[in-house]
Amino acid sequence: MTFWVTGGNGFIGRNLVRLLADRGRSVHGLGHGAIDEAERRQLKLAEWINGEIDASNLSALAERGGLPSTILHLAGGSSVGLSIQQPYEDFSRTVNSTARLLEWVRRSAPNCRLIVASSAAIYGASYSGSIPEEAEPRPVSPYGHHKLMMEQLCRSYAVGFGLHTTVVRLFSVYGAFLRKQLLWDMCLRLQRGERELVLGGTGGEVRDWVDIRDVVKLLANLAERQQGEKFQVINGGCGAGTTVAEIADILTKSWGGQASVRFSGVVRPGDPFSLVADGGKVRALPFTWEIPLPRGIADYVHWFKEDTR
Amino acid sequence: MTFWVTGGNGFIGRNLVRLLADRGRSVHGLGHGAIDEAERRQLKLAEWINGEIDASNLSALAERGGLPSTILHLAGGSSVGLSIQQPYEDFSRTVNSTARLLEWVRRSAPNCRLIVASSAAIYGASYSGSIPEEAEPRPVSPYGHHKLMMEQLCRSYAVGFGLHTTVVRLFSVYGAFLRKQLLWDMCLRLQRGERELVLGGTGGEVRDWVDIRDVVKLLANLAERQQGEKFQVINGGCGAGTTVAEIADILTKSWGGQASVRFSGVVRPGDPFSLVADGGKVRALPFTWEIPLPRGIADYVHWFKEDTR
């Protein structure tokens, strides 16, 4: 069994490549970013092509190491903010790359299974409480719209052309090697010696935080199991909502020393107040969320201090 | 006021260009297909660029005749059958071209209004009775999926970047110069002297038939009126359902002579049994459907006989 990971050089991608390789899988990757030989060997990545997800690169990867049995498709836009500044770029990275991938699979590897990373952003800003997979998608940002369009395309190819596809809507993924967003920004400021942090928003925003180590285990488990339905969608969230204020509190305590956190009350337009998964479908899988939030955050702080020493 | 028509060389496009020009508008176009000078003048098309909907062609068109006040976007895939044979081609023509258009408008002509042709195919095959615009989209074919993705992208740009956009979901458009589908096929066979026609399906399939002359009037009216909402969706159907058997009967009577029609009973997979608009929203516009079906079909038969003489 050969696994391909698109976007293998990203935050989730690197963690996923390593886990699959640790499980003894042959892992090949394609996406943006140079990975030199030493790094490639360290990641246990059998092959890496630095480039666009397009027919010529996909065929080149197949020539090097054979057709894939499963593709874990993580490539795509990765920032709500950037998608607002450069919407066509985000469209192109998320929707266009998926269109080229699906067409190549249809023509060249129709028995290959697909695990596709989508986002809770497709639900938008109008839900409170836990959101089941059947909820009507109401994305707000271009990023969310493009992820929803990507899902639509996956559904079209699965139903119309029989490609076995699982879409995983990831919630708030955090962990070592994530060098952006709330936790990263807070650590940077604490490291600079700030002791009175003022954060945006109200602090009451609720998210479904999941540790990267659990997330890649979920993706790997999905990739390795037999799938009945041609097309399925699964929430990649644990179902527990935690406010930004609680997260900030856990993080400052993990950091050590005295620090206070206040909130500006200025809410980013379109920022959802609550994004929490109905986690029933994922709990029915052979999979368990293992890393509790305090431990995950403590590990993140530890990694940050090591990483920036 | 300068109007641009993308896909201006297609069945709807050519009819729309002529109507807008007859109303005294300056009409410029972009899309696939060579239009020579004599034809361009006859269509009263001020400018025509034969090529992709992309930034360079859009900018070239603007250099020739100024920025558009309204773009009527008709370019895109035009066949359910072809979308099944070549899904990436259909994606590229429908979704990709719209992405490039919206991005160009956002950057270069943000005050330009957009009238975008979508399709009843986005509703899919699971409805009976009249379908309101709020019905959940459940497309079946790649063509329908891609049109829905296109709508999604329009919504994203309208809500996120303020582009004034009206999406019109066209139902079963027929009329002079349509050289494919049921009416064309039947006329061809009657012209060859067949008098016992066997058609696919059951004959009970219901469609909302609208004459091209009414359809382009609807599109032109929408383009010329002030629009309140940033983004709106309107069914381009009259709200009356007519079965294929009834249409076939009207057509054979219009043709003259004796001919019988039978149905094979073999239904194309995914072919919706019923696609009829809830026409309330369009009836609330300053617009009236004027051409009754028997007259429209009789005119089509007349055109066919002239055209193929």
UniProtKB/TrEMBL annotation, chains A, B:
Domain of life: Bacteria
Name of this chain's protein: UDP-glucose 4-epimerase
Gene3D superfamilies, sorted: NAD(P)-binding Rossmann-like Domain
SUPFAM superfamilies linked to this entry: NAD(P)-binding Rossmann-fold domains
UniProt xrefs under Pfam families: Epimerase
Domain NAD-dependent epimerase/dehydratase: 5-235
Originating organism: Bradyrhizobium valentinum
UniProt-listed CDD domains: SDR_e
InterPro entries: Epimerase_deHydtase, Lipid_A_modif_metabolic_enz, NAD(P)-bd_dom_sf
